[in-house]
Design brief:
By secondary structure, the chain is α+β, with helices and mostly antiparallel strands. It contains seven helices and five strands, in the order αβββααααααββ. It folds into two domains: 44 residues, no CATH class; 97 residues, no CATH class.
């Protein structure tokens, strides 16, 4: 429960309900439910920190600021194509789609790519390599994001993403 203070602070700041469950399938690390404004975390997962970023940053942002998140997704996917190639991205997307189909029963290719991006976001914040890459990699080469503005859906305030 090392992340409990983080979960509590996040819940307070966003109005999101955080649910900790110990009876989830071992392959499911967490989930975000927009209608309930709820994030469920699997306490049996050994990926608590990366799951937090995947759900609380990736899924949450996609749900409440789809337009802003599409810009971030586009930047990340473009970076992957530029550095690893379109075929790599296509293969990876198909692998993600197959894996999610096995777990959830349905997942479009686009939804699978959204999951891939959210995993990428969590990777940027949960490893030394990810932090290094975020400074020198996709954020450094995606200057068109500079000044991208996102409106906070709860307060109406504006947040500027400045890489």
């Amino acid at each position: 429960m090392a992340l409990l203070p983080v979960y509590e602070a996040y819940a307070k700041a966003t109005g999101t309900t955080i649910v900790l469950k110990d009876d989830m399938d071992a392959h499911i690390n967490g989930s975000f439910q927009k209608a309930a404004s709820e994030i469920v975390f699997n306490t049996g997962s050994d990926k608590a920190f990366s799951t937090f970023f995947h759900e609380a940053v990736g899924e949450y942002t996609q749900a409440w600021n789809a337009e802003g998140m599409k810009e971030v997704q586009e930047a990340i996917l473009s970076y992957v194509v530029d550095t690893k190639g379109a075929e790599y991205l296509s293969r990876t997307g198909r692998r993600y789609q197959s894996a999610y189909m096995a777990q959830e029963g349905t997942k479009s290719f686009r939804e699978a790519m959204d999951e891939y991006v959210n995993d990428g976001i969590s990777g940027l914040f949960t490893s030394k390599e990810g932090m290094r890459q975020s400074r020198s990699g996709w954020m450094a080469t995606r200057r068109h994001l500079k000044g991208t503005c996102c409106r906070n859906w709860r307060t109406g305030s504006r947040t500027w993403w400045i890489p």
